[in-house]
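[recover] target loaded
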């Protein structure tokens, strides 16, 4: 890809992005938490539970990019303060979305990782701003975007001097209606051929169905993703955002147990040369 310069693999070592005590790009990192920060209690209960289950980072939106302007838009500054409390209590670094270039500098004071959502992947003003923010960026794939368009967006961030970019496949729109989107798992090994940046998978937005999140998380691990991002809620049926797709705490805990076992199994098989071709 001729215009991909800073993101291209070009014999470079794989990038490892550090956020607090967590690393993305070494081992299998798990980002978990609610779609949106709703209340102090909801966020703290969920944060403690995902930490206990073995998550590496906490997610939660204080600014929500909603399809309808009448839907819950997030708590803004109050939400960021709650995330700060959750980090102080659990030690988990915080991943949170920023929607507007004017908010980047102050959101960056609360966030450990700035998330760019699918709807903003090609918001070039926003990409340049997070490129100057001095915090790692989780760049989600645009729901209608090719790998080349996506890598060009990473290039905008890297070009501003921020080397800490993580790509996150979150499903693309296809004719299929049963799943919310179609998870393009082939993007993971394809991106390995193209870029040194870490690649994560969000099986929650990709499928929109709790029953599919476990299998697709295990798939992500097996195809070599650097981790997953999963939505978890202490009471999914009451969630103000993306209620249908959130995992309960119990279900997330089971998922983690299985994933850590699979991780060990795959690492052993790989070191014995049993995973080839
Ligand atoms: C989210 O992570 O809550 C989100 C809005 O994701 P996406 O931008 O992938 O839809
Ligand atoms: Mn969501």
């Amino acid at each position: 890809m001729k215009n991909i310069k800073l993101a291209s693999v070009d014999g470079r070592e794989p990038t490892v992005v550090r956020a607090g005590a967590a690393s993305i790009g070494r081992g299998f990192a798990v980002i978990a938490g609610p779609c949106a920060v709703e209340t102090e209690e909801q966020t703290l209960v969920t944060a403690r539970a995902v930490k206990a289950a073995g998550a590496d980072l906490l997610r939660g939106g204080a600014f929500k990019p909603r399809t309808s302007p009448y839907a819950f838009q997030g708590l803004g500054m109050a939400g960021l303060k709650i995330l700060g409390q959750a980090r102080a209590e659990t030690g988990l670094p915080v991943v949170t979305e920023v929607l507007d270039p004017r908010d980047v500098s102050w959101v960056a004071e609360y966030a450990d990782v700035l998330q760019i959502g699918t709807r903003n992947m090609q918001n070039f003003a926003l990409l340049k701003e997070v490129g100057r923010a001095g915090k790692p960026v989780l760049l989600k794939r645009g729901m209608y975007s090719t790998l080349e368009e996506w890598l060009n967006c990473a290039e905008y961030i890297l070009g501003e001097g921020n080397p800490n970019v993580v790509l996150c496949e979150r499903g693309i729109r296809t004719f299929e209606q049963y799943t919310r989107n179609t998870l393009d798992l082939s993007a993971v090994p394809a991106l390995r051929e193209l870029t040194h940046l870490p690649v994560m998978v969000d099986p929650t937005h990709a499928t929109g169905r709790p029953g599919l999140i476990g299998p697709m998380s295990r798939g992500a691990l097996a195809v070599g993703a650097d981790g997953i991002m999963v939505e978890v809620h202490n009471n999914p049926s009451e969630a103000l955002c993306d209620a249908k797709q959130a995992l309960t705490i119990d279900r997330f805990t089971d998922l983690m147990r299985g994933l850590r076992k699979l991780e060990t199994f795959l690492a052993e098989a790989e070191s014995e040369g049993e995973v080839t071709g």
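[recover] notes: Residues 35, 205, 231, 241-242 surround manganese (II) ion (ligand 2) (CB under 6 Å).
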